[in-house]
Amino acid sequence: MKQFFENFLREEDGQGMAEYALILGVLAVGVVAVLITFGDAIIDAFNDVIAKFDETPTGTDSTTG
Asked: What is the pLDDT of residues 3-20, one digit of tens each?
């Protein structure tokens, strides 16, 4: 039994995948934190861009004088 646990602790199969999963988890938590913190500011920025497009006159061609 002691040998089994020693081999289990030394085994490295799947270690890389577990590290990638941890990194992905940390990134996901970071993205959620940023969206919670800056969510309203991001929405306002997108709405400002949409408003600028709505203000642009259509049907006019500035290249023909």
From this structure: 887 777 777 667 778 889
